[in-house]
Known about the structure:
Elements: E1 7-8, H1 10-20, H2 27-36, E2 39-45, E3 51-57, E4 60-64, E5 69-75, H3 83-129, H4 133-174
Parallel strand pairs: 1-5
Antiparallel strand pairs: 2-3, 3-4, 4-5
Helix pairs in contact: 1-2, 3-4
Amino acid sequence: MDVNKIKLTKHSAQRVRERLKAKSGEELKVIKDLLKNSTYMGVGCDEKGAKCYLYINGKVRIMADNDSWIRTVIVESNVNYPLKEKLTEIWYKEIRKLNRKIKTREKYVKDFELNANIELAELKLRLHKTKSTSVKFACEARIKAITEAVRNYNREIVEYYRENYKIVKHYQRAL
């Protein structure tokens, strides 16, 4: 993410003032400084299902969307208990595992979509050229099956993002 292109919504600017004790007008500078030294943790989604990128800098968690808008700023509490390190370790493993799953699934779906687009083009051409009603029905059925398969794959990826968000949300509640 390009730190120079970051934008804050009114809500996130208010959260930065409240949670990070930033002065009015300095919210963007504070976020930029935090993001320069933060670690990218992976992709998740917010409560509405929108894709977000998670960055961590010490006790501060920042969620940003792909248009460089900062969505949420979360600060961990100073409570330190024995399970905290173990929870953090498990959480990092789960997030990494889920991000790898998402990445491989997205790659597979992209390959499938590209091959499906080729087949769809051939089927549409055949549908256009043929006079046989049985061939037309067969082409239409195959086109419908391909588009439904693509839709199902995309739903599956959205479910992975939602699962990722749930893990992030529960981890933040646990701390």
